[in-house]
Design brief:
Elements (H helix, E strand, L loop, with lengths): L21 E4 L11 H7 L2 E8 L5 E7 H14 L7 H10 L1 E5 L10 H7 L4 E6 L4 E5 L10 H10 L5
Antiparallel strand pairs: 1-5, 2-3, 2-4, 3-6, 5-6
Helix pairs in contact: 2-3
């Protein structure tokens, strides 16, 4: 069996599906949010879902197209060992929080249950399209627009006139 070619870390694959964040309802028994057509098409049918943790209370899922995941791993390998660690340890840490997933023909993303549970995903998720991945957070975390009059009024209280 022939090994898959190793991606060149300097050639970043295209994903580029920037767009507005969107909310999706999720069935608790099977976390499968329905994605917009453009996002589902850009991800492809096989993806890698990675649990990202900033702290114990700040977690989200990063969904990478398979080509983008391969690029991420190749970049980690190309970086070489960081002081005090080796490449294998970094790759094991990366893989420990990752799992393969599928996007069905109707655009439903099957989130791995163990990662969805660790991320706290319940009945609703907020999805953020990024340049190289789709980020998914538990709940309704859509930011209010910057043009919201309440926000502008609050900000104006703290503004100091320029002289």
């Amino acid at each position: 069996m022939e090994a898959a070619p190793v991606p060149n870390p300097s050639e970043e694959p295209a994903f580029d599906v920037l767009g507005e964040p969107f909310l999706r309802s999720v069935d608790k028994e099977a976390p499968r949010p329905k994605l917009p057509v453009g996002v589902a098409d850009a991800l492809g049918t096989l993806v890698v879902v990675l649990l990202m943790e900033m702290s114990e209370s700040v977690k989200w899922l990063a969904v990478y197209p398979l080509s983008q995941w391969r690029h991420l791993v190749a970049t980690e390998v190309a970086r070489g060992p960081a002081p005090g660690t080796d490449v294998q340890a970094r790759l094991r840490r990366l893989a420990r929080n990752a799992a393969r997933a599928e996007v069905s023909q109707d655009g439903r993303l099957s989130l791995p249950r163990h990662l969805a549970a660790r991320c706290g995903i319940g009945r609703q998720v907020t999805c953020y399209p990024r340049l190289d991945r789709l980020e998914i957070e538990a709940g309704n975390t859509l930011p209010e627009g910057p043009d919201d009059p309440k926000d502008l009024a609050l900000l104006s209280e703290f503004m100091v006139p320029l002289r």
